[in-house]
Amino acid sequence: MGRDSCVTRVTAGVAVGGAVGGAVGAVYGTYEAVRFKVPGLLKIRYIGQTTLGSAAIFGLFLGAGSLIHCGKSY
């Protein structure tokens, strides 16, 4: 595959982290909305907030890890 540039690796890390974090956030948000009996359409808002928050945080951490790992050569 060759050596990718650091920007490409970090971008891929953020994208993968956002996808995984979004999936986990959607499942967790749905579970919490049902568990706490969030009423009506507020469930959708709660699930959306949990999904976006989880995707952003996990994407940030995976992007930072990719950036740290980018400088190392094995």
UniProtKB/TrEMBL annotation:
It holds the Pfam family Romo1. The chain crosses the membrane at residues 12-31, 51-70. It is found in: Membrane. It comes from the Eukaryota. One of its GO terms (biological process) is protein insertion into mitochondrial inner membrane. The keyword Metal-binding does not apply. One of its GO terms (cellular component) is TIM23 mitochondrial import inner membrane translocase complex. Keywords: Membrane, Transmembrane, Transmembrane helix. Its main location: membrane. Signal peptide: none annotated. Belongs to the MGR2 family. This is Reactive oxygen species modulator 1. It comes from Anisodus tanguticus.
